[in-house]
Automatic annotation (TrEMBL):
Chain segments carrying region Disordered: 83-102
Keywords from the named record: Signal
Protein name, per record: Uncharacterized protein
Highest taxon of the lineage: Bacteria
Signal peptide (UniProt feature, chain positions): 1-19
Length: 160
């Protein structure tokens, strides 16, 4: 029984190997494949350029937001220093009034800094989302070129 099974398996492999012949490529198919490879390479290059441009745009927005955060924080620190200086220079009976006035100025500076930070973050997030969308569109274009190229190759092969 083992010899019969071994013979059947060997026959199966032999027929499978014999059945796998490579199709003869005609000049039209070769030309279509060449054009397809060229188109796909160009699409991939354009996709990489779009990705780099989108990343640069997003990075610039994030850097600008970080700069805005730093500037706002520095402004708050300056207001705190001014308030502390005024309290130190104030007469003993006016210290409480000077502290209250200083706290009010610091609170106003913190509010303004917070508002600027939120706006900068929102803009950075928007730019990042736009960059991601640009990347997705570029990838979609590349996929479309690949699909069109594959269809062109199939059409060229079908003609022959």
């Amino acid at each position: 029984m083992n010899k019969i099974i071994a013979t059947l398996i060997a026959g199966l492999f032999a027929t499978a190997a014999y059945a796998q012949t490579t199709p003869v490529q005609t000049p039209a198919v070769v030309k279509a494949e060449h054009e397809a490879n060229k188109d796909v390479a160009k699409a991939q290059q354009n996709e990489m350029k779009a990705d780099v441009k989108a990343d640069k745009k997003a990075d610039k927005a994030v850097a600008k937001a970080n700069k805005t955060h730093d500037t706002a924080a520095a402004h708050v620190e300056v207001e705190k220093a001014k308030a502390n200086e005024k309290v130190a220079k104030a007469d003993p009976e006016d210290k409480a009034k000077a502290e209250a006035k200083g706290d009010k100025a610091v609170a106003k500076a913190e509010e303004k800094a917070g508002k600027k930070a939120v706006k900068a973050d929102a803009k950075a997030i928007k730019e990042t989302v736009d960059a991601t969308a640009d990347k997705a569109i570029a990838a979609n274009k590349t996929d479309a070129v690949k699909a069109k190229s594959a269809a062109d190759i199939k059409a060229a092969a079908a003609k022959n």
